[in-house]
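ESCALATION

Customer reports they have been waiting on this structure for their group meeting. Please prioritize. Original submission:
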Amino acid sequence: GWALDGAGNPTTDAAAAKSGALAPFGEAKGYALGLAFELLVASLTASALGTAVKGTLDSSAACNKGDVFIVVEAGSGAVAARISAYLDEIRACPALLPGRSVAVPGDRARAERRQRLETGIELADDVWHRILDLAQCAA
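Update from on-call: job pushed to the front of the queue and completed.
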């Protein structure tokens, strides 16, 4: 689900993906967001768009893509408090599915990290024994 071939079909073949594109994250909304960013970057940098972009996957052409870096210091002062309050407001929205909660990006990963720090990481016995074997070889 990460790449499309030259005809726009999903593929797991790296060669086919090279003649296609990265699949849009988030389906239609992800596609629209990606398109908006591409248009914004090309407008700000006067760079190429779409298939006219060259030189990023091979060195046979000069690179003509644009890059824009936006830096926001959101971790300080009133901005951090406003962002935190807004994210809490989103989390407090009614969930679509019973028994589930509304989350924002990063919530699941933070919860998983907390759980792993408390309980460890589950590994199948055969995987653990292979790790031990590799450790013995390296010693």
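Sent to customer with the following note: The first strand starts at residue 3 and ends at 4.
Escalation resolved.
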